Each structure stands twice: as structure tokens, then as C-alpha cells.
């Protein structure tokens, strides 16, 4: 229903000089979608208030409401082109009046967990990049065709928006930062099995894919598919999902993605998670479940490293320490990390593995194939652990979809079915095995993935190496033939 509209919006933005990449298209679509959502949200609230005989207090002032400036209608409910701002008038209004007005909500909001505060945060971070008022007018008319009223409409919009995020991830060098493959997230959630009433946290939220998938899982009643009560639904909305995100664009996309999935006032804080001192995390700030894919390979400054007992510049290692501290005793975590974490011999990696094994039960390691993350050239593993008891045995599973992954052939749910099934009983197979922690080298705590069932593979050589060897053999043959020739 809405797919053509999304394509038409992209076409409009593609022609505008201010938008040059998939990241820009997603960012600019996001702020327009958000304001259209807000208008529909307010209309629904007004309707419900009238049914209850109350007067509805609008969030947005009359002159800045979507129906006034973005999509004015005539008496018949048709688009009113005569009263719609366009060209330079529209750009002047959006940049000079609308955005400053919306940004001001951050100061006037009662608290950070209100929709008012989120409005202020979003428009304090995002800028209108569309340069032509005629392009902007076209895009606004297209966005106005979208509806956020029913659960079906929101579901379809969330699906289309996820596709935009996926394309954005594919477009950038740091693709994995924006997009974790949804089949992998769903398998992680299936193993962790969250329940209503537990809090779920992601301190490196990106586009909030983990929280959106966890919401869908719980909304459908979890693995047992049980029907939710009104109280359960309220708990899901207000006291279940918590996130932090450092980057402005990802923060805005995370909020929009959660809203489209049905979480009306997302609990996302725009902050650098690693700037928080680990000692300052109180029990009241700890969570039952942590699902995350922290950024790989970043380098943090010395003052940030001071917040952590194990000093390292590797961002992912700092995040792992943060997650271990932010987990409640008995809490469960599933964290994506570079596979080199299992074997690195630097002091920080060894100390971190030791800490993880001694104070947490690292019960499962999922070894992911190359190109699981498009746009990120690193191999990854998923660590599944429970806080508060030492590890005695680790169950490994080597994921092998039997094909090379890529843009046209990504990971799918079927690829992970066997992992989820075998993990329930930590069963051995050709792809899975267990390792006793008592057998580890206590100097290195090396946890490398070494499948005892795999046949010795013939190492494929590089073409350059083979050609060099052929040239060397040719020269050798030439020399031998030369000597034979002398003898004849």
C-alpha cells in the first residue's frame, strides 16, 4: 500500500542538491515522517478525549501543526494548493520558524521520558537538508498520503522503514553500525526468551533493531504466544525498553523506528554511554536483559578509558564492561562482538575474558560466518551469558549456511533454526561442541572457536601465490634444460 509512496519520496530527495546519500534520504524522510506521525497521534488523542467528554490539550501550537503548513486542506478535504507554502517561502518557514520552535520543546518539557522532550531532542539534532522548496513541497505531499492510525498501517510503515535502514547500512562503510541482520537478532531473542515485566536494555542502540524485535516478540506473547492483558501492554509501552545512542542520526532513527513498531514514547537517551563511570551505575539502573551489537574497532580517548577498571582503547571491550556492570545479578545478555575478542593476547582482552568467565556464566558462543554484517569486513561471534555465577562449560555453535553471504543472499531465519533448537539442550553435532573451562590455559583464557568435528580443510591458495610458483618452476625448468643442452 505505502511502498510506492516511499519510492516517490526517495525520487524527490534524489533530485535535490542537498541530499547526496542513502543516509541523507533516511534522515530527511525521518523528520517528515515523525511530524506526520505526531499529527495523527494528536488527532487520535483528541478523538479519545472527546469520547470521554474531555478537552484535548494539543502538544503543537495551531500555526505549526502539520495540517496548517505541510498539508492544508480545502473545505472538501482536498489538498489546498492555494494556501500551501512552497518555494523559498517554505524553506524560510521550516528553517527559520518550525525547527527553532520544535527544538525549544527540550527546555520546556517536564522530563526526558516525555514526547515533548523527544521532539526537542530530535529537532535539536537534525537539520533540514532539502534545498529546493519545490522538492520539499513534493515530499510533504507524498508523506501526507501515509497513515499511522491502525496497527496494520504502522506495521507496514515499520517494515518499509526497516528496509531504508538496511539500505543505509549497505551504503556506508560502517554498515554494521546501523543494521544488525534481523534473523540474527530474532535468534538471540529466542535464546534469551524475555518475559513481560523484565527490562531490556541496549546501550549502543543504533537504529534500535534489538528493541523493536524484542517488542514484536513480547507483543506476540513470546515463545508461548500467550495473550497479553491491558496491564501487560502498558508495561511493554512504559517500563520495558531502555536505550542509549551517541550519534545524532542513529538516535533520531532509533526513535522513529520504535514509534513505527508501536512504542509511543521511546525511552532512548542521546548520550555517550561510555562517558558514564562504571562505579556510578546503581542497582536501580541495572537491567534484566541486555541485547546489543556495540560498534567495532573504534578508539576511545584516555579520559573515557578512565571510567573502566580494564583500560583499553577498543570501544567494543569498553562496552562489554559496561554491559556486565549494567546487568542485574541473574540477568541475561546476548552481545555481538568481533571474534578476535576470544583469542587476542593483549592484557585487556585476557583480563576481560577472565572477568567474564569468573563472574558470569558464558554458556553459549555463536560463531557467525563472514559477511553476516554487510559493509563490515570483520568476523563476529555472539556471547550469551548470565551474571552472577562462574562459567564451567561453554557450548559453541559454528553457523554455516552452506553458501557465501552477500547483499542478494543475506542471512535468513532458516539458517539459524538448527542453532536455536540445539542450543535448548546444548547438544553436540557436526557444528556444535562443548568446552570445559577447567581445561583452559589460565595464562591466556583463550576461547578461540576450534571445532573438533571439522575435517582438516585444504587451504586454498591465493592466485598470486600460484602464479609466482609457476614462474619460479618455469625458471627452474629452463635452467635444467639449459644444462642438459650443454651436455648433448
From TrEMBL:
Q: What is this protein called?
A: site-specific DNA-methyltransferase (adenine-specific)
Give the highest taxon in the source lineage: Bacteria
- Using the record's annotation, list all stretches that form the DNA methylase adenine-specific domain: 153-458
Return the broad EC class: transferase
The UniProt entry, under Pfam families, shows:
HsdM_N, N6_Mtase
Q: What is its EC number?
A: 2.1.1.72
Question: What family does the database annotate?
Answer: Belongs to the N(4)/N(6)-methyltransferase family.
For this protein, the record's InterPro entries field holds: D12N6_MeTrfase_N, DNA_Adenine_Mtase, DNA_methylase_A-5, DNA_methylase_N6_adenine_CS, SAM-dependent_MTases_sf, T1MK-like_N_sf
UniProt KW GTP-binding keyword: no
Sorted keywords for this record are: Methyltransferase, Restriction system, S-adenosyl-L-methionine, Transferase
Keyword ATP-binding attributed: no
As its record notes, the protein acts as a catalyst of: a 2'-deoxyadenosine in DNA + S-adenosyl-L-methionine = an N(6)-methyl-2'-deoxyadenosine in DNA + S-adenosyl-L-homocysteine + H(+)
> What's an example of a GO molecular-function annotation for this chain?
site-specific DNA-methyltransferase (adenine-specific) activity
Instruction: Write down the species.
Output: Pseudohongiella nitratireducens
An example Gene Ontology biological process:
methylation
Amino acid at each position: 500500500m505505502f511502498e510506492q509512496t516511499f519510492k516517490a519520496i526517495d525520487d524527490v530527495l534524489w533530485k535535490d542538491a542537498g541530499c547526496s546519500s542513502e543516509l541523507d534520504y533516511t534522515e530527511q524522510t525521518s523528520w517528515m515522517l515523525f511530524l506526520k506521525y505526531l499529527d495523527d497521534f494528536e488527532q487520535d488523542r483528541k478523538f479519545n478525549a472527546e469520547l470521554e467528554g474531555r478537552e484535548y490539550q494539543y502538544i503543537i501550537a495551531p500555526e505549526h501543526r502539520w495540517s496548517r503548513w505541510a498539508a492544508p486542506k480545502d473545505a472538501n478535504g482536498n489538498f489546498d494548493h492555494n494556501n500551501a507554502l512552497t518555494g523559498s517561502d517554505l524553506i524560510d518557514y521550516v528553517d527559520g520558524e518550525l525547527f527553532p520552535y520544535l527544538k525549544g520543546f527540550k527546555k520546556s518539557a517536564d522530563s526526558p521520558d516525555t514526547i515533548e522532550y523527544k521532539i526537542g531532542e530530535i529537532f535539536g539534532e537534525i537539520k533540514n537538508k532539502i534545498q529546493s522548496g519545490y522538492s520539499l513541497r513534493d515530499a510533504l505531499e507524498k508523506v501526507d498520503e501515509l497513515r499511522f492510525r491502525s496497527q496494520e498501517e504502522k506495521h507496514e510503515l515499520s517494515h518499509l522503514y526497516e528496509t531504508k535502514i538496511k539500505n543505509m547500512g549497505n551504503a556506508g562503510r560502517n554498515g554494521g553500525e546501523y543494521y544488525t541482520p534481523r534473523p540474527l537478532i530474532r535468534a538471540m531473542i529466542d535464546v534469551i526468551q524475555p518475559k513481560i515485566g523484565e527490562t531490556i536494555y541496549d546501550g549502543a542502540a543504533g537504529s534500535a533493531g534489538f528493541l523493536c524485535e524484542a517488542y514484536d516478540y513480547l507483543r506476540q506473547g513470546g515463545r508461548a504466544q500467550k495473550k497479553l492483558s491491558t496491564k501487560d501492554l502498558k508495561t511493554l509501552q512504559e517500563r520495558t525498553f531502555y536505550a542509549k545512542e551517541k550519534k545524532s542520526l542513529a538516535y533520531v532513527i532509533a526513535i522513529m523506528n520504535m514509534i513505527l513498531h508501536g512504542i509511543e514514547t521511546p525511552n532512548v537517551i542521546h548520550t555517550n554511554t561510555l562517558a558514564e563511570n562504571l562505579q556510578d551505575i546503581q542497582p536501580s539502573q541495572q537491567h534484566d536483559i541486555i541485547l546489543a551489537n556495540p560498534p567495532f574497532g573504534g578508539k576511545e580517548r584516555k579520559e573515557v578509558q578512565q571510567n573502566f577498571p580494564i583500560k583499553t582503547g577498543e570501544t567494543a571491550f569498553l562496552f562489554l564492561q559496561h554491559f556486565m556492570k549494567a546487568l542485574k545479578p541473574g540477568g541475561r545478555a546476548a552481545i555481538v562482538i568481533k571474534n578476535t575478542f576470544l583469542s587476542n593476547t593483549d592484557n585487556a582482552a585476557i583480563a576481560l575474558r577472565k572477568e567474564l568467565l569468573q563472574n558470569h556464566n558464558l554458556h553459549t558462543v555463536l560463531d557467525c560466518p563472514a559477511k553476516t554484517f554487510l559493509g563490515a569486513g570483520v568476523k563476529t561471534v555472539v556471547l550469551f551469558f548470565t551474571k552472577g555465577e562462574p562459567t564451567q562449560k561453554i557450548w559453541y555453535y559454528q553457523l554455516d549456511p552452506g553458501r557465501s553471504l552477500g547483499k542478494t543472499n543475506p542471512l535468513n531465519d532458516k539458517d539459524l533454526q538448527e542453532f536455536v533448537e540445539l542450543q535448548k539442550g546444548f547438544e553436540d553435532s557436526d557444528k556444535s561442541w562443548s568446552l570445559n573451562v577447567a581445561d583452559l590455559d589460565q595464562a591466556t583464557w583463550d576461547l578461540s572457536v576450534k571445532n573438533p568435528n571439522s575435517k582438516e580443510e585444504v587451504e586454498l591458495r591465493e592466485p598470486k601465490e600460484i602464479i609466482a610458483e609457476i614462474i619460479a618452476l618455469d625458471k627452474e625448468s629452463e635452467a635444467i634444460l639449459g644444462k642438459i643442452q650443454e651436455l648433448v
